[in-house]
Amino acid sequence: GKDDLRSVVDDQFHKTLLALPVTGIFIFTVLPILFMILVAFTNYDGTHNGYTNSLFTWVGLENFRSLFSFGSNGFAGTFLTVLSWTLIWAFFATFIDYFLGLAVAMLINKKGIKFKKLWRTILVLTIAVPQFVSLLYIMKMFRDMNYPLNHGVRLIYGCSEETGMQDMDYF
After folding, report:
1. pLDDT at 60 over 70
2. Model's pTM, two decimal places?
3. Which backbone phi and psi does 117 adopt, to 5 degrees?
4. What mean pLDDT is predicted for residues 147-170?
5. Per-residue CA distances from 3 to 10, 16, 18, 40, 113 (Å)
6. What sign does the dihedral 18-23-28-34 (CA atoms) show?
7. Could you tell me if 70 and 77 are in contact, meaning their C-beta atoms sit under 8 angstroms apart?
């Protein structure tokens, strides 16, 4: 009752604050992963549209048999090639970034290096620029009149065809 509410608002407030992020992680991370695991055991593809035939059927491990089998119907050769390049890329990208970053940090912290703040700012910019480019792309998605996302938002908010997202006050 009243004591439980007081406990959640006062004594256990940290749990109250964590409820929203934990719910978001569950909805946007855990559920999609579970969904994709379930889809892996179906024959869902472009030919199963749900109108002329069933949307999907459960095929069990058949997808994995074809993925790991070498033969005319198997994808094992392609899969192993892609997997090996992915692992090689991940390994070298991680360790090269780590060791180069460490070396640059040690160089910047050496005595006698001038403009240390400038060099550190340049390093931070290399992290911020890709995110800025992503933001520019998102802006383009909303400004392009023919983009499906813009069209959908126009339909939801009842905008005319001539009105783009750039004309709305909240964008």
Report:
1. yes
2. 0.48
3. -65, -35
4. 65
5. 10, 15, 20, 47, 61
6. positive
7. yes
Instruction: Tell me how many degrees the CA angle 13-14-20 measures, rounded to the nearest 5.
Output: 100
What does the alpha-carbon distance between residue 159 and residue 155 come to, in Å, rounded to a whole number? 6
The set of residues, in sequence order, having a beta carbon less than 8 Å from that of 87 and lying 6+ positions away, is none
Closest alpha carbon to 63 in 82, 44, 81, 40 = 40
Give the bridge partners for 42, in sequence order. Answer: 58
| Residue count of the chain | 171
Interatomic CA distance for residues 156 and 63, integer angstroms: 38
Closest CA to 63 of 81, 85, 44, 91: 44
In this prediction, residue 85 has a pLDDT band, given cuts at 50, 70 and 90, of: very high
H-type helices in the chain, by residue range?
Answer: 2-6, 13-25, 31-39, 62-68, 76-108, 116-143, 148-157
